[in-house]
Write a structure and sequence with these properties.
The complex is a heterodimer of chains A (105) and B (117). Chain A is an all-beta fold and 105 residues long. Helix content of chain A is 0%, strand content 54%. With 117 residues, chain B is mostly beta strands. In chain B, strand 4 and strand 5 form a beta hairpin. Classes of the chains: A mainly beta (105), B mainly beta (117).
């Protein structure tokens, strides 16, 4: 079983700042099969990125994804108030990472 | 995107069977794969399994012995049964869609909290 480790667990930032979230896999996975989800308080997760770097429908371009092998990154270029949430990476259909909470500083 | 709505008892007794239904609207049940995912404070998000309209299924190995997912095409519904529940099965359960067996979950229901007590 591939384990996904996300870091940091929590990051405290201000609106307008840049957020860089990490997802590390215990063994190499194809970037085709790496997704990111956003979960706001009280809501279900929603798909942000698929194939590591493709934005899902309706996702603004301040969100970007990159990476390959065992190291993947989600970047939010300028944080908007609605971006403060928890972010999860996932290898399609299977394991999720433990999440990174982006909180307002 | 399809809309998904989970329903079922919010309270289940230990050792009994948890049964949930997901009603699909805005799309055909034969167009997607359908997954169940649960979320607990302790274990985070956990994929339970998926089904295709044909009845083909795939389950998380850790839950395989207790899980059954089924589909009712006439009602546009997907069901989850989890037997012999314990307090560890207390979670918010989500129904999700995916376009292929190895695809991201592109639509999610709002989730339903099930407490085992």
């Amino acid at each position: 079983e591939i384990v996904l480790t996300q870091s940091p667990g929590t990051m405290s930032l201000s609106p307008g700042e840049r957020a860089t979230l990490s997802c590390r896999a215990s063994q190499s996975i194809s970037s085709r099969y790496l997704a990111w989800y956003q979960q706001r308080p009280g809501q279900a997760p929603r798909l942000l990125m698929y194939g590591a770097s493709s934005r899902a429908t309706g996702i603004p371009d301040r969100f970007s994804g990159s990476g390959s092998g065992t190291d993947f990154t989600l970047t939010i270029s300028r944080l908007e108030p609605e971006d403060f949430a928890v972010y999860y990476c996932q290898q399609y259909g299977y394991s999720f990472g433990g999440g990174t909470k982006v909180e307002i500083k | 995107q399809v809309q998904l709505q989970e329903s079922g008892p919010g309270l289940v007794k230990p050792s009994e069977t948890l049964s949930l239904t997901c009603t699909v609207s805005g799309g055909s049940i034969i167009s997607y794969y359908w997954s169940w995912i649960r979320q607990t404070p302790g274990k985070g998000l956990e994929w339970i399994g998926y089904i295709y309209y044909s009845g083909s299924t795939n389950y998380n190995p850790s839950l395989r012995s207790r899980v059954t997912i089924s589909v009712d095409r006439s009602k546009n519904q997907v069901s989850l049964n989890l037997t012999s529940v314990t307090a560890a099965d207390t979670a918010v359960y989500y129904c999700c869609s995916q376009r292929g067996s190895y695809s991201p979950h592109d639509s999610w229901g709002q989730g339903t909290l099930v407490t085992v007590s």
